[in-house]
Amino acid sequence: MVRTDGSMKAAKFDYIQAATVDEVVDALAKGDGEAIVIAGGQTLMPMLSMRLARPETVIDINRIAELSGIEVASAANGDEVVIKACTRQAAALASDIIQTQLPLLAKAIAYVGHQQTRNRGTVGGSLSHADPASEIPLTALTMDAYVRLRSVAGTRDVAMVDYFLGPMMTARADNEILLSVHFPTAQTGVRTGTAFHEVSELRGDFAVVAAAAVIELDGAGTSTKVALGIGGADGVPKRITELEEKLRGGRIDPGGIHAALGEIADALSPGGDQHAGAAYRRRVAAVLGERALLEALAEAERA
Amino acid sequence: MNTVMNEHLGKNLHYVAHKRRVREDKRFVTGKGKYVQDVNLPFTKHAAVLPSPYPRARILSIDTAAAEALDGVQMVLTGEQMAVDCNPIRLGLKLPEINWYPLAVGMTCYVGEWVAIVVADDAYIAEDALDLIEVEYEPLAAIVDPERAFEDKDLLVHPGHGSNVLYHGNFLWGAVDEDFAAADDSLTFRARWGRSSTVPIETFGALASWDEGTEILDIWASIQMPNFVELMATTLGYPLNSIRLHQDVDVGGSYGVKRGIKQSVLVAYLSRKLHLPVRFIEDRLANMAGSDAHGPDRIFDTDVAFNNDGVIRSLKIRALDDAGAYPGRAPFQLAKPISAIVGPYKINSVKYEAISVCTNKSGQVPVRGFGQAPTNYMIEAAVDHVARHLGLDRLEVRRRNLIQADEFPYQIPPGSKYDSGDYQTVLQKALDLAGYDDLLARRDQARAEGRLAGIGIATVLEPGGGNNIFEYLMDPTAEITTFMEGCEVRVDAQGKITGIMGTTTSGQGHETMMATILGEELQFDPDDIRIVHADSLNALPTRSPIASRMAIMLGSAAAGAAGKIKDRAMAIAAHNLDRPIEDLEYAGGTISDRNDPSHKLTWAEICFIAYRAYHKLPDGMEPGFQAQYIFQVPGGGQLPDENNRVQVYPCYSFQAHIPYVEIDPGTGRVTVVDYAIAHDCGTVINPDIVRGMVIGGLAHGIGAALYEKFSYDDEGQFLTATFADYLMPSVHEIPDVKDVEHCTPSPLTSHGQKGSGEGGYLGAPAAIASAVNDALAPLGQQINELPMRMHKIEALINAKNSTMEKPR
Amino acid sequence: MRKHQIELQINGKAIAREIEPRLSLTDFLRGEQGLSGTHIGCEHGVCGACSILLDGVPIRSCLMLAVQADGHALTTVEGLTQDDGSPGLLQAAFQDAHGMQCGYCTPGMIISAQALLVDNDDPSLEQIKDAIGGNICRCTGYVQVIESIQLAASRMREAHL
């Protein structure tokens, strides 16, 4: 964050404590791009203080009961876990549903910030901010999740693969609120392994590079699904689809994983900053990608 | 009462060296610390600053009309106005063409330099007003690289000065050329110390209130600085006795850097203009970019001459330091290390070329150790380079070069005598604590398993006590030969004791230290002794808590003042008991005839006589019961001889560091797994305080070694204005440090104490660098710059010329 | 910009105030309530000096608007003392183990430790590190902070026996 123009106190804004989602979408519509939703505030508050965000209206969704909670629902392609937008990261980390049904997400959230920020920070807030190195967006992408968005015009679902448009840019329009994120649960009868690896200079900081992997094996040990996502090495979290295709449909072994790692560098266009250059991010993406795949494989084989 | 026999001092100690609560802590744990932000005066107004977005730009115009018109705004001030009414800030070298003002005048010299300041009813409104100030700039090319700045004759930070060089001096102590010629071998290396600082969690803040009735400016500031009030007075053009600095504020961390002279001048000026109290608390952005609180940023090019047995004969050191835009005290951070320029080693001769250049970056401030930490990093790198070059063990090379215990006081080539030490024993204690043989086995096992593991070794000095004479070495008009500290002790009519210190405290536990020594000397429970901080109009002379000097200087002054109190009590007793002083014995305030203990005067009786019974005082004695003592820095008082040889600092503490690190070969991330440190600062007055200094300094050193850096891009844009980008270690990055003390008392101080405030910081960067390089050694790689960020280490591991296949 | 009425509890005391929406919770506590133990370090959510308990869980007060605290119960470091204002058990342990130097990060550290110990009087080293991992201290190197928390935990265990 490059910031030297001297503010640490927010500019003036109006504040609405919304009681219902209807109230939120009405206010967003009225705001015409000058209204913004605050959930946990862990990213928005510094942006307000530094006046990087100067909304006319801040709409608080913390008290909307229908925006909080985790549940299993049935969907077209089997069960899904629904996490409402304003669910705290700490609540998600402590959730039995997430620990048992979405182990990759549990592993990822353990890397998110510190207890003080997880106690306020929300799952939906992290997805809305869409930092390319952030853990929850990377996990949602890797798990083929989708988000549900709503405006006065109605509700729509957007798959993760279509959701991230660039650094801190998503398909959500200014007049939309993110209601929930939906994760498919694992099929029965398959053995699933997951792993999340990241490197940050200090623990709890944003990742410099992160890798998330899911491997599913059938009874014969053939891979029915391989998913590898990389964060921090491109403008958006990226799936390494060429690698996934290479590894899917056969028996996976460490040699095969190693041989496919070239696909990771090929799929990424990292930028550089004072934390690490593009070459570092590309190389380390392959290192962490390999580690995540190996760990996921081992876990699937044990399952 | 529990006592410990101090074998070195040959006396029993009742309070000194005992584990006792630190008295300052009570107010901190209950949230009752009183920092500048917590001082409230009625009708206080709040200031906020507008920073420059350009590293170097001409200021064409500043339009403040809209800001001034905003409801709640009291005043908007720019540098032009300030320059009319105030003098430039002059501290350090005499560089008349470099004018440093609190706000930029005509030209901005770095990103974040303050261009205007707003005073408003609250901080929010002040920042609203900043939004309304229109500044027209003409951006210019910036000077960023210090080596280029040194050479460049055209592109100048301060054109009037004629170059970018603030200081360039050569020192020669001993027969360097002869020693190089006679030595078996020599080598050259470069070591680069990165631009980091101490970055206290409290930013700098100041609150000023001008009283036209008394013509006194009251100021509360989070300050740790000698000459602060004098500098305020000369900059503002006030008489010195019109400024009252309140020193009873808690300072939320400093470690050298809390020297907010420009901030304090601003609030003083604004308060007098507005006839209202004005407070300015830097926010974090203003602090990181604009506070002129960055640390040394130094390139060492060193030649070492040595024999084949590893004995080092001579050093040629060239140090080029990037001071940033304004000189301040920066050049002198190249001079203080002259006090220990050969470290703890017997090195026969030294050539030292010191260069300070200015660039378009935020200014440099004294940082913990005042240049000694970078210098120690370079010296330890030299020893490791020699060992590597000769294929000798790093430990053995140190042992062959360390000054021996029977060689003290030991005079080094630049003239300073090291007061005392037992370096071999302290090193052995560190090795024992680390379990060195097991550690070697553990490292080798890790390597056998394909991991990168390394052990660091650093044996370094911590000069303590302060002295200004190094300034004379750079500026012979600065004939300053004292660096005194005063202490006043008052015994009241109830017999209660109050000790008065003349400066602020910023976490070093000075109140505890002073109470402990007063209690020890006067034989009263320190918990019953009050310690207060005089304001600057009431205080005795002080040089402030810099230079690891307070235990040495204030401690010795307190002992001296206590001695005067005791002398006075003895004189009163001798007069009233009608006995010669030699026959009297002092015990806990009661004075009795040692031949007839029932013949005595109690403390209460002595105090009554002092305050109420003039007729019972010895002839000519003034009534009352107080004493002042000003302690002169031991060994100071001299100008250098014709060969520039002089005693710089008085006392020399010693540390031996043994960290163990592992590096993730895939990411380059370093984990400090274990850390052992042995430390000798002579007599420890409060063990918890000293231990905190040692470990806290060490953690700060780990930060400088691995994470912390103020970064600028090639154009001079500032990249690290927030804590998301300036990285400081959390509890996860600091290992469970094992520490052990050793005691070689100083012969120069009241209780044998030496300095400890710079603590582990003076050795940890060197030690971590040594460990990382040990870990990289099997790859044939090394890194010679700090901070050793993971992306740089990863690049070395991945370099094509690695001699070993990359481990996974 | 309309002001908002908020009602909340701070250290057990009911408070009602009308405030501007943009006021941060830290500034509200310090400026409007005189609770100066909650410190400002970075105001962008990294250093942890402003940590307080919100309904018993630790949060960073610089990352919350005061208006959002409506209806909640807050605890600051001042709320952890004994009734006479003397140090509570955890605070006294920080004194005894000298878990601080300049005292500036200390209230945040103590708040984080309090949140840990209230549910767990026998925390592992790793749990302690996780609890204070978001609190930066520039003085101590954390070792004596950890020892303070361990001392408090052992005193709590003794008290429960």
Short description:
The complex is a heterotrimer of chains A (303), B (808) and C (161). Chain B is of the alpha+beta class and 808 residues long. In chain B, the strands form 8 sheets. In chain B, strands 5-7-3-14-11-12-13 form a 7-stranded mixed beta sheet, with helices on both faces. A 5-stranded mixed beta sheet of chain B has the order 9-17-16-15-10, with helices on both faces. In chain B, strands 20, 21, 29, 30 and 31 form a 5-stranded mixed beta sheet that branches.
Tell me about this structure.
The complex is a heterotrimer of chains A (303), B (808) and C (161). Helix content of chain A is 34%, strand content 26%. Chain A is of the alpha+beta class and 303 residues long. In chain A, 56% of the residues are buried. The mean pLDDT of chain A is 95. Chain B is α+β, with helices and mostly antiparallel strands and 808 residues long. Chain B has three domains: 36-140 and 204-281, Aldehyde oxidase/xanthine dehydrogenase, a/b hammerhead (Aldehyde Oxidoreductase, domain 3); 370-468 and 643-797, Aldehyde Oxidoreductase, domain 4; 484-631, Aldehyde Oxidoreductase, domain 4, CATH 3.30.365.10. The longest helix of chain B is centred in the C-terminal third of the chain and has 28 residues, at 550-577. The radius of gyration of chain B is 28 Å and the shape is globular. Chain C has 161 residues and is α+β, with helices and mostly antiparallel strands. Chain C has two domains: 4-79, Ubiquitin-like (UB roll), CATH 3.10.20; 81-160, Orthogonal Bundle (DNA polymerase, domain 1). In chain C, 34% of the residues lie in helices and 16% in strands. Chain C is built from five helices and five strands; from the N terminus they run ββαβββαααα. Chain C has a five-stranded mixed β-sheet, with helices on one face. In chain C, α2 packs across α5. The interface between B and C is large, with 58 and 60 residues.
